Amino acid sequence: MNQDKIIFQNIYYEQVSKDHINKGWLSWMNNPKTTKQINKEGKKFTETDLENYLNQKKSIFFLACYSKEGKYFGNLRIHEWTPDIACFGRLIGSEEHRGKGYGKVLVELAKSLIFENTKYNIIIAGNNEGDLASSNSKIKCGFIKMDQKSKNALNVEFNNEGEYFILHRSHYYKNIK
């Protein structure tokens, strides 16, 4: 899938580029409220840090998210964990867009892009323990919280911190029919 713009549920998306760093991404990454779940050390990010991240991370999709009014409000990154497992991360950077359901829309977009445009059979998404908004949006979108037994069955390495959620391709297609 190679499109300049993706439209999904009245939100549009384009590839994240270097230009997005100063359109909001850098300020979001340096806002402790925005990154309390992903930047516990309080690191101060620079333009160079985000350029390096953009260039070093091998993403299947790395999308800038815009509201129907054209406001850049966050990012969605989808990448490979194993040849059969994809995962995603999302950031709602704009404070005015938090708590309005955009996180759930980004989960739905990630599911759609992965299962309808790639070969992956499983999606795993994680978040820090206690990030209820992130956990709830994944569960509302059909993901199941993984226990230790289900993690062991996949035979992949997990970070010991945080929670992980899983969705299989067969459950996705069963639920959209």
Describe the model.
The protein has 177 residues and is of the alpha+beta class. It is built from six helices and eight strands. The protein has helices at 25-29, 47-56, 102-117, 132-140, 148-154, 169-176; strands at residues 6-8, 11-15, 61-66, 72-82, 85-92, 122-127, 144-145, 163-168. It has an eight-stranded mixed beta sheet. A hairpin with a 5-residue loop joins strand 3 and strand 4. The longest helix is centred in the middle third of the chain and has 16 residues, at 102-117. It starts with 5 loop residues before the first strand and ends with a helix. 28% of the residues are buried. The mean pLDDT is 88.
Per-chain topology:
Elements: E1 6-8, E2 11-15, H1 25-29, H2 47-56, E3 61-66, E4 72-82, E5 85-92, H3 102-117, E6 122-127, H4 132-140, E7 144-145, H5 148-154, E8 163-168, H6 169-176
Parallel strand pairs: 5-6
Antiparallel strand pairs: 1-2, 2-3, 3-4, 4-5, 6-8, 7-8
Task: Characterize the main sheet.
Answer: 8 strands, mixed
| Helix-residue proportion | 25-40%
> How are helices and strands ordered from N to C?
EEHHEEEHEHEHEH
Count of extended strands: 8
Structural class: alpha+beta
Mean of pLDDT? 88
Shape: globular
The radius of gyration is: 16 Å
Beta-strand percent range: 25-35%
As laid out across the biggest beta sheet, the strand order is 1-2-3-4-5-6-8-7
Distance between the termini: 23 Å
> Low-confidence stretches at least 5 residues in length (pLDDT < 50)?
none
What are the salient characteristics of this protein?
177 residues, alpha+beta, eight-stranded mixed sheet, 6 helices, globular
